[in-house]
Write a structure and sequence with these properties.
By secondary structure, the chain is an all-alpha fold. The protein has 2 helices and no strands. It is rod-shaped, with a radius of gyration of 38 Å.
């Protein structure tokens, strides 16, 4: 191989022998990057799910409110036609 490459290889090997930065630092760096990436993705998914849950709850509450409003309007319309009538005997409890 080329003497220039051999020279830098030897320097890198000597540097690693003295400091351990290459043999320990490279795997640790890879582990750190993977951990940060995975945890970021997990936290992002958690926030997505929480947001989705909040949206469905608010949509459900809105639809319930619409149903209640429709029921109130319907019941307001029946107030005028309401009259007291006796319950037929066949529907009375206890007879």
């Amino acid at each position: 191989s080329h003497p220039f490459i051999r020279h830098w290889w030897r320097r890198a090997a000597r540097f690693d022998e003295r400091t351990g930065m290459l043999s320990a630092g490279i795997p640790l760096t890879i582990t750190m990057v993977v951990t940060i990436t995975v945890s970021t993705i997990m936290i992002d998914r958690q926030f997505e799910l929480r947001d989705l849950r909040a949206r469905t709850i608010s949509a459900r509450e809105a639809s319930l409110e619409e149903e209640h409003e429709a029921m109130r309007d319907f019941l307001k319309g029946t107030e005028d036609e309401y009259e007291m009538k006796a319950i037929p005997d066949q529907f009375r409890a206890g007879k």
